[in-house]
Predict the structure.
Amino acid sequence: MVMTMDRTAWTALGGDPGAVDAVTVVGEGDLPSAFPVTDVGCAAIAAAAFAIAELVAARGGPFPAIAIDRRLASFWLFRSIRPIDWKIPPVWNATAGDYATRDGWIKLHNNQPHHRAASLKVLGAPEEHDAVARAVATWGKTELESAIVAAGGCAAEMRSAAEWAAHPQGQAVAAEPLVRMTVRDGAPLALADVAARPLQGLRVLDLTRVLAGPISTRFLAGYGAEVLRIDPPTWDEPGLVPEVTLGKRCARLDLRADADRATFEALLARAHVFVNGYRSDALDRLGYGAAARRRLAPGLIDVCLDAYGWTGPWATRRGFDSLVQLSSGIAETGMHWRNADKPVSLPVQLLDEATGYLIAAAVVRGVTQRLTRGSGLEARLSLARTAKFLVDSRGEPATAPLAPETPADLAPEIERTSWGPAHRLAPPVAIAGTPMRWDHPACALGTAPARWEEAVRAKV
């Protein structure tokens, strides 16, 4: 089954279906779910690996063999870092989660302060779980979802798969491709010809947050790309940053301030790749829509994701993996699978994770096309469309458990992060002659200057 998913994911990116024959899947076990979570995660990782292998072959080398370890991949889909004598803060705020309404279930995504403030204002409740539960219980789920979204918050009522299929947004997402790729005008690209570091010299400007986008740029950094992450002045996600900033440098800019806008435009003008995880209209409002980006950076490989798709009435709606699971019927299917009386989401944030690896694959395919054909690339993905890929891939529920983690699953090096030393799991993918490794440890947001690395070195 996993090979079929590999082929589906890779051909959605325009890849040669014959490349799938180069992969070997090793290891046993599955994450427990009504859906083939481990298989879909492995398929997305394989697609990113195929893209790296294709790049190596396009530059004159043989197409390398690829091995995916499904057990390690399953662990990576949850968390890859293992702190030594320090702790990662919790991801979820106490008021976030699933709540019973008068007529069903709703999820509140209250992890960010401004989203939390919006939902608490609508509910008229203090920041306390039981008080929120009492307030939610007085609402209908559709009414409350609409009110919180209108107030600038993030919420999703639990729908069945059939209800989502009949919903205008579900129909819009179903009509979208898994990855929408558009060839654009190109510009020359020169990279170091180093098979062991095939993305060395590639400059990636990363405007992503939370999980899917950061997963993609972490993968790119693992094969040599220079990734510069840019965050707004006050943004933080302390429960996730140690996991996703591996291999990157992280700076802050306020894109509403003239001086920072000038810095951003200078960075973009020298970038080869731009990865954006903001809502689909957010950069347009700042004057940095897709056409403006192409003018600033001819030949740009421009890859963007959003939550609910690029067409339909929810194209600009705020969203996260856990909300899309409620909206699209995944959590309701899980509830019936487990015979539970409340929503049962996936055991990991698979929509984020799988979309992240598909983004990385799209970027690397764009690099190959720019090197070989001189063309630029625009690609668009969404968590909701990845959800459809997962739902369409559903077969028999997973039954084989994963063997517990052991010290042999860890990479040998100690990672010196901003918070203290840590172990990292060994990579879940092996490409012959092209090891996945990172040049920078995980770091806190805002710890680097907003300059490309050669400019930083020149200052030393």
Remarks:
- The domain at 2-89+177-309+347-459 is CATH 3.40.50.10540 (Rossmann fold).
- The chain has one domain: 2-89+177-309+347-459.
